[in-house]
Amino acid sequence: MIAKPLKSGVTAYYWNLPTWATERGCKLHRAELGRDYGAAKKRADTYNELFKAWRMAEKDPGPADQDKAVRVGTIDWVIAQFQGSDEYLEDIDETTRTNYDGGLELIAEHKRKSGTRFGETPIAEILPHHVDKLFKKLRDGGKGGRVTTATHAIRAMRRAWNVAHHYNAMIVPEANPFRKVKGTGSTGRETEFGSLEQLETFVAKANELGHPSVALAALITYHWYQREIDILRRLVWSDYEPGVRVKVRHYKNRNRRKGEKENVIWLALRDPQSGTSLFPEIEAQIAMTPVRGPLMIMRDKPDSRRKKPLPHQAYTVDYFGKLCREILDATGLPKTITFASFRHGGFTETGDAGATDSEMLSGGGHKTRGVLSIYTKRTNPQAINLAKKRLELRTAQRTKGGNLSE
Q: Residues 209, 133: one domain?
């Protein structure tokens, strides 16, 4: 694991492959491990195990090493293929990779009746009904059940299988036994959307408690539809041109131009005709948010747990989530409201305003219309807009018919 101090004062961690291994054909790549030491160490251990397995395979391991090596054609091998692929290392963000790793480990380490690990099972022996049983055991294994955990694990393995098939079609069949597993269609209730009033309450409380950057993050996710990870890790001050435009990134969305690793939208900040601000709330909050470093959203208070507290640091996803929960609890808003609720609220307000699907896709950076139903909740204003449009259509048709009969 390589530690690299950044100009902002934060230390970033990386994993890199030795040159000799690259020259010998190892498919692993240089990887960003993040800025949290504990999470980086865990991910580095995963890469080291993959590298160790490759080295043992390369040197033709003897009988004593056979049990340690990842055998071709097993679930362990499928997972290793996925975690060493470009799709995993380049197309999936850090938080999602961490979630995938946890789910894949849960499946690989599951003990079968024979006492062997599920990861040691040859893929040729796995049938859909075996996976159904695996899901039920993972789901019912924890106290009170672990529906969400088990569902995410199956979904991660489903993707791993598809990627392994893409690169090793002669070994991994296209028929994926982790598809259509009963009970994995949904991980629970849908995210409750946060209203404009609830957003304003949260913003006011965050400012009151001395966290203007958190208030700004909430306004950004509501008005610019950005996800938390993009706001915390990718939004920099140089992306913001005051009074002109802002560069908004949607890394997770796959609606990208050819050759680009991220989906970028340039949003205008002014109405070109009237010159008025399109996002007055955000611009007002930016004006009262100090510049702490290159990232637009950085901690407003130093970490007191450090022996030498840095003046300002980038947020970790975990700490940001805990801080948002503390602020939300201080507001007295319902427990069902989370930071993610404000992004859903922004989409829902857009639907209430009568925006077309094309307009919503343009603002949110999505590629398909089907995904809009996830974020745009059904509300009375939308139903009223629909009724008004239908009434206007009927009136226009009757007027046209009347004119034709005269």
A: no
